[in-house]
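User: For my dataset I need records formatted as: sequence, then structure tokens, nothing else. Please produce one.
Assistant:
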Amino acid sequence: MDAFLDIFIQLSLWCKKYSYETALAIMATLIVLFGNKVNLVIKGHINRLNFIIRTSIFILVCAVGYGAVLIFLTPWLADLLISLHNQILSPILLLLFIGIGVVADRNY
């Protein structure tokens, strides 16, 4: 059991060096996975509007909205990852990426 704990601690220490990149990968993947659903919901609400207004709204959502999510939530997620204890960071990341993979598999 101590061997697994040591492995998790070493992996967590390594992951903390790349916490921003890991957080960015998570956020970008979530945007790719759920962005189409968000766009479909928005499209359903604005489909009766003028073409120029619809296009402007989608530019705001895609460029500004998704960009803001990446810019503001990535550092927050990176700080959250850094704050996790070394014994649980690597198992949480492993489970998180497996969960993202399962969601991606079910979506496509």
